[in-house]
Design goal:
With 414 residues, the chain is of the alpha+beta class. It is 44% helix and 18% strand.
């Protein structure tokens, strides 16, 4: 029976949903952000000193220009992008990946249903090769293959993030035995209980693009792969290769998943898409063998920071700190006390002590400011030595203030 109400009766108003208030920053996070911004500023100060003292086209001056390019392309501009993108890039799903510096990367153009083992079985059965993890050894391999035009079917792919995590794995298909040209697709597991806009559930999201050449990034001037603009062609290529060898794979299309657009990815390459998302259903695909590779994730939701090996940034910081101690013992202009203190603090950071990371950033910041200021007033040969020493302190500050090292020490609290 429906209760009738008179015109004068008040209709109860449903309670408004409570808004999530932004989380207040802790003192440690404020210090961490301050050191990050300071390191970025010191990089540009050091680059200005390098460029200001350039006078001629001698071999030494050309070397100084190469140092300036390397400093800006691989440290300065990426750090500046990371600072700015924290302010304006949205922290929610918009159908785009992000680079490690926070710039919008390749669009998501493929979704999958099925387990990790079924994804591996479908991709390897279709002739795709799983990409190697990005390590110092594999990085040397991709550089050598690009320069010497040698084949590297399992060449690593650059890191892109979705849901705040790196890709779980990637697959590629080399073209013509040339590592500079390849089809490749990255895969991310979706968080538990997460659904696509419109309520569609999928287990994996992927971004497939085609590398057409090697060139310079428009935004950072780094050497990188240049992708083909029509990413829909690559999406359809991935689906076609899988369905050709795996008849049990089914597809459905979510039209207008995003608005059709022309844009640029994190390397500055033009991308365009019709906005449709193809869902590849692999739930009926048999798994005749375990997932390949020693680094296959045991869980589809393993966080990016859950690793037992220290990040590359921390290894670089340790190498620089050790080199400073060696130079100090050799009687060079490197100050012995800060060098030894930095090395001891680095050992504590390696043991995941957060306080040691903050102290190491503080020591490196003070030393870098003093040395860069001293080098900026001495453009002679002695000034170049001071610049190298200042650059070492700045490099320690940059690497230790990185997100990778911050995640490394945060694991101790967990």
């Amino acid at each position: 029976m429906i209760e009738k109400r008179s015109a004068g009766d008040a209709v109860p108003t449903p309670p408004l949903p409570r808004k999530r208030l932004p989380r207040a920053w802790s003192a440690g996070e404020v210090l961490d952000g301050a050191f990050f911004v300071l390191a970025t500023g010191l990089v540009f100060w050091l680059g200005w000193v390098l460029l200001r003292d350039h006078r001629t086209l001698s071999l030494g001056e050309l070397g100084r220009l190469v140092l300036f390019w390397g400093l800006m392309a691989y440290v300065g501009l990426p750090r500046l992008q990371q600072v700015l993108t924290k302010l304006y890039v949205p922290d929610y799903f918009i159908g785009r990946t992000t680079t490690s510096t926070g710039v919008l990367g390749d669009p998501v153009n493929l979704a999958l249903e099925g387990s990790a083992e079924q994804v591996h079985a479908a991709m390897t059965g279709a002739g795709w090769t799983r990409a190697d993890d990005l390590t110092l050894r594999s990085a040397r391999g991709i550089v050598a293959s690009a320069v010497l035009r040698r084949s590297y079917p399992a060449a690593p792919v650059s890191a892109l993030l979705l849901f705040g995590r790196l890709q779980a794995f990637a697959y590629e298909m080399e073209v013509g035995g040339d590592a500079s040209r390849r089809h490749h697709v990255r895969f991310w597991p979706t968080p538990p209980g997460w659904v696509l806009p419109g309520g569609h559930h999928v287990d994996w999201l992927a971004a497939g693009t085609y590398d057409r050449a090697v060139g310079l990034s428009l935004f950072t001037l780094q050497v990188t792969h240049k992708i083909d603009a029509d990413i829909d062609v690559e999406r359809d290529h991935v689906v076609a290769t899988v369905q050709r060898r795996t008849p049990r794979a089914r597809t459905r299309v979510l039209p207008h998943f995003v608005t059709a657009f022309h844009s640029r990815n994190g390397g500055g390459d033009v991308v365009r898409t019709d906005g449709s998302l193809v869902v590849l259903d692999l739930t009926d695909v048999p798994v005749p063998y375990p997932a390949p590779g020693p680094s296959a994730p045991g869980s589809a939701h393993t966080p990016v920071a859950d690793r037992r090996t220290p990040p590359v940034e921390l290894v670089v910081a340790g190498a620089v700190a050790l080199a400073k101690v060696v130079l100090a013992l050799a009687g060079t202009a490197v100050l012995p006390v800060p060098a030894v203190v930095s090395l001891l603090l680095w050992v504590a950071v390696l043991a995941r002590w957060a306080w040691a990371r903050l102290l190491l950033m503080a020591v490196s910041a003070v030393e870098a400011v003093v040395l860069v200021h001293a080098a900026s007033g001495d453009p002679g040969a002695n000034g170049l030595a001071r610049l190298l020493h200042a650059g070492a302190s700045v490099l320690v500050l940059v690497t230790v203030s990185s997100d990778g090292v911050r995640r490394w020490v945060s694991l101790r609290r967990r």
